[in-house]
Design goal:
Shape: elongated
Distance between the termini: 143 Å
Radius of gyration: 40 Å
């Protein structure tokens, strides 16, 4: 039988492998523990001169918010105008509630207007400093038709006041008052009792 020979790596490969291992050991020893630390580090997106996204500075200290982080102040004239409107809208809401209590048959007819005024008051109070002052309740008519006429008249009068106030302002406050005036005009027209025609 032919003699079997075991394959062995050539001397050149063994020498190369030993040399590579020796060089790797020398490099590791030369670098020391720092090599292991560098190998375990990951790039931190928060590192660098830009700082982290939590308001920290470049050195890791917490920085206080600048002037842009402060709550902007509202023009006193705007606060006064919207507070006056809030008081008037509150009066209208009270008038709707009083008429509904006195004449329950009108509740369904007044429901939409009452909801509008609640929504309008909430929008007005979204502006910092706006408050509704206490005001005397508006008079309720003696009959249901008189009560509707009183509401319609008050809606029209308030719409005129709000339209005038809107013309003196600008931006969002002016638009809000204009929206109120438009809604109040519509309500005043809708709720006004239909006048009977005279028979000749």
């Amino acid at each position: 039988m032919p003699e079997r020979r075991l394959l062995q790596p050539s001397p050149s490969r063994r020498t190369l492998s030993r040399r590579a291992l020796t060089q790797a050991a020398v490099v590791t020893v030369a670098l020391g523990p720092g090599a292991t630390m560098l190998a375990g580090c990951k790039d931190d997106p928060s590192a660098g001169s830009g700082g982290s996204g939590n308001g920290s500075g470049a050195n890791g200290t917490t920085t206080s918010p600048g002037p842009t982080g402060e709550t902007p102040t509202v023009d006193p004239a705007v606060v006064a105008a919207l507070s006056t409107a809030a008081t008037q809208v509150t009066q209208l809401s009270q008038l709707y509630a009083n008429v509904s209590r006195k004449f329950p048959a009108l509740r369904a007819q007044l429901a939409a207007g009452a909801k509008y005024h609640v929504s309008h008051l909430a929008k007005l109070k979204e502006t910092a400093g706006v408050t509704a002052k206490a005001a005397a309740p508006l008079a309720v008519g003696a009959t249901s038709q008189a009560a509707l006429a009183a509401i319609a008249k008050q809606e029209q009068a308030t719409a005129t006041i709000h339209a005038t106030a809107a013309a003196k302002l600008s931006g969002a406050p002016a638009r809000l008052l204009a929206e109120l005036a438009a809604a109040e005009t519509q309500l005043g027209t809708t709720l006004a009792p239909v006048k009977k025609k005279d028979k000749s």
